[in-house]
What we know:
Layout: H1 7-16, E1 42-43, E2 53-54, H2 72-75, H3 83-87, E3 94-97, E4 109-112, H4 122-127, E5 131-134, E6 137-138, E7 172-178, H5 181-184, E8 195-200, E9 206-220, H6 229-243, H7 246-250, H8 254-257, H9 262-265, H10 271-274, E10 278-290, E11 294-306, E12 313-328, E13 331-345, H11 350-357, H12 371-381, E14 385-404, E15 407-426, E16 436-458, E17 463-486, E18 514-537, E19 541-552, E20 561-572, H13 574-577, E21 582-596, E22 614-615, E23 618-622, E24 638-639, E25 646-659, E26 664-683, E27 692-713, E28 720-737, E29 744-747, E30 750-753, E31 761-763, E32 766-769, E33 786-787, E34 790-791, E35 797-799, E36 807-808, E37 814-816, E38 823-833, E39 836-846, E40 849-851, H14 853-859, H15 861-866, E41 908-910, E42 913-924, H16 926-932, E43 938-952, E44 977-986
Parallel strand pairs: 5-8, 24-27, 33-36
Antiparallel strand pairs: 1-2, 3-4, 5-6, 7-8, 9-10, 9-44, 10-11, 11-12, 12-13, 13-14, 14-15, 15-16, 16-17, 17-18, 18-19, 19-20, 20-21, 21-25, 22-23, 25-26, 26-27, 27-28, 28-38, 29-30, 31-37, 32-35, 33-34, 38-39, 39-42, 40-41, 42-43, 43-44
Amino acid sequence: MKRTVTYCTLFFLLSSGYVTELEASSRAVFDGGKSYFGQNLIQQPDTVSRDSIIYYSSDPTKPYLGVDTVNIHAAKKRAFLSLQQMMKGTNAGVYVQEPSGEPGTVKQNMLIRGLSRPIIGIEDVNKSKPLIVMNGIPLIDEQTLSYAIQNYSLQPIGAATNINSIFNLDNIESIHVLKDYSTTAIFGPRAANGVIYITTKNAKAGQRKISVNSHYGYATPSSVTTINAEFEKKFRKPFYTKYANEDQLAAYPAYLSDSSNVNFYGPSNWTDLYYKAKPLYDINGSLEGGSERANFRFFGNYAGDAGAADETNLNRYQAAFYLNMLPIKWLTISSMIQGTRLNRDRNRSITERLGETAYIPDLSTPLSPNKDMYGLYLSEYKKSLDENNITSLLGSFALNFAILKDLNFSPKLYLDYNENVRNVFWPSTLMSGNNYVSNYYGYNERMVFDNTLNYKYIIDTKSNVLVEAGFNYQSDKQKYNFIQGYKGPNDFIKVNVVEGDSQKSNYLKSVGFIPYYYQDRMDFRLASAYLRGTYTIDRTLKLAALIRRDGSSAVQSDNRWFTSFAFNGEYDFNSLLKIDRIAGLKLFASWGRLGNLPSTDIEAAGPQYGTELGWSSNKNVISYNGIGTITRPYQSGWIGYDIPWSYTDMFNAGVDFNLKDDKITSRLEFYNKDNKDVVFTVPTVAESGYQYERLSGMEVNNKGIDFTLNFNFPAAPDRLSWNSSFNIAYNTNQLKALPRGLQEIEIGNRKLAVGSRIDQFWVLKNQGIYDNDLDVPVSTDHKILTYKGTVMKSGDPRWEDTNGDFDINNKDRVLMGNYIPKFTGGFYNRFGWKKFDLSFLLYFNLKKDVINAQAARYFDFANQDEAHSLTSVRDITYWEKNFDEEAYPLYNPWSPVSPYQAEQDMFLEDASFVKLRNLTFGYDFTSMVKKSSTRFSKLYLYLSGSNLLTLTKYSGRDPELINFFGYDTGEGLRLPRTMVLGIKLDF
Length: 987
């Protein structure tokens, strides 16, 4: 089917950023089993997906986005709601972390080409994320301010909903992954960790068209092995028989003492209420039409993603409108607005509930594994209130002035605004007599004024120079108000009532609960100017250079401005070789420097005061002898002057290879990335009164290789066709320097050492067990081996004394393993025959390790029984068997040396895996419906399943359910298997 692109249409698309001038590049575009390489405007054929046009852009209205793209045609058959889920296994160099299968949870993350800094706290996760851009709008991330007031940083206060769940694949034209500075530098310092660039479908001229897409299916729970008190009693018996004294026997847990108690010794059938098959559904539609002078597109979506565990759910309501006009030949107007509402039903985890309340009740008796008793607990939970809502609004307004034939000026206004609301009430029956209420309201706002001017100078018929200049101003505002209250009058009043009489002294103060109020706000300003020049010769040679100047209010006043630069070039050697079978053999390279923006303004303020005289168990109770006061930040860390910008240097080089017949395309890239002058919190001298100090000077290196190989073997309609795409990435990191020339630092259970990886575990090397006291080593001067001064005895672990001082301590711990995989990738295949198609996606992580903290905690029952902390909480999933009880030695659990501490190589496991991420079978009914009706232009049905199979050596639940620090704590919900039936209809 041929189409004509008129001057007006092309000009309109050019200025709106959806069609731009094609550069000399070759790329395979996979869609429905066919691939095309472009030297001119390329139109994909009508297959299962709609017609689309793919280009390379040299116009700043839509910057050159490179060649790393997601196969949208395949991805939109998968029932995924979040961007992170969509990106798994699709592109070399992209690593996705999903430590929980809860729909819409904020516990998802993406990395492009490794970690830019060590992950010590949740804030460090945010600082390592790539920038997400939609239609030119750099999206704002959720604020991290609230972590400062939390005792436990399990997740942020508020809705804790993944804002990257606002994307619908049926409304997306393309997703590009920008990894090197030839593509990312144009986006400035927010792009130092890479960019995910999303282009939505836009209005276009043509006949009015309606499209409807929908799927419906189920998320099904994984099979689990349940246990009850009988199992636990048998598990503990050898320990009590061999090691327990009279006091320890007397303290035997009450819930294990009576074997006639059916609540614990009866059937462990709690899974009937916890794990259930739940529906997944999505319905969306679009209406588009108009002329070449003015056209529009409307898109609407309603989707639901229910988890298969703990009654979790996410609902999405979305509407978007696109309008483009060409009122006069030298002016184009483009606009879009998208509104999204996310409503989430969260899990009923005791751990997360107590993590917010910072109130730890009596935990000596866990929940009963019996369905009837667990049902009574859930009936009390029905008295609670837990509303979690996010409202997102995205908008843009762009003008393009064709001042001269080759001179264009394009001013744009972008807006990203989202609100985060959570209202909570938990009754006293769930909180040991202490009910709780909290209300959270926060917003994140980004407004961007962007101006670009570009001029193309034609030297001759084969060469040209493109000069681009731009100025960008971004204003960010992030604010939250949070109140939490304890000990309300009863369980019927579920809101925090305040005094409404303005004449009273306690006006607007709580009259029911004991309240605690928190609020904070950050204002960011970022001003940027850049100049870029690109020289091209006959689509064979391309050289480009960019220089930019960025000023940020988040950096200290004497270091506000930073100069970045980037250089890149490419050359197609096939112009010399002139091999007919080769369409392209291109060598390319880039090198540059980008500044890194802080995620908060705390460093910009320099020395400051805080509220750190709180009660040791609740830092939010701020007083000194009952008098509210402020102090220097003795616990969180001193912030001094002269903190400069941190920045990233990156070199990238590679080769593109394409055959003439488009059957094989490949891309190989090498990169070397150095994050320098990273600001990091390091321990400081105790005499200063401070525990930590924030210093600049850390340097982290990442280097690796990205490789992609595509096969495309199309065939006649009645023959078998095959398309395949394989990607793999290797990444390794190294700590090159620490502030003040330090060689190593210790922070909690982590150690950072110059010359080592930044994602290693700091563990003791376990060599077995001391069967009797005589086995414990004694030095030549008659010193018995100790653990931090405590004499080792029978039943204690044989930990290696690496320094030979006959005392096991932190000096004997070694750095081992890595929780960021060295190899990641995916393998996609699609087979077509007549109207049938079958596709599957394999996703893998290799050379990756995990600390099985869930197994360590179960074996450490002696300490957990007596503990009064969040780590000793036993949720209902405590009654799952997720470990091999025969895999570990029988240590004395009451030993003061903590023999089952997680930080030892006994609990360090290989978490490599290969997963069948998706399997899809479809049939195209288009030809059949066209015969019976002219109203329908497309009808396609498909059946798709996800998370179907996992191959791994890991003994735990799932090698993906690992938190951002490399630990499997057992807290995340299992990733469900899903099966959906979908339909795509155009008319």
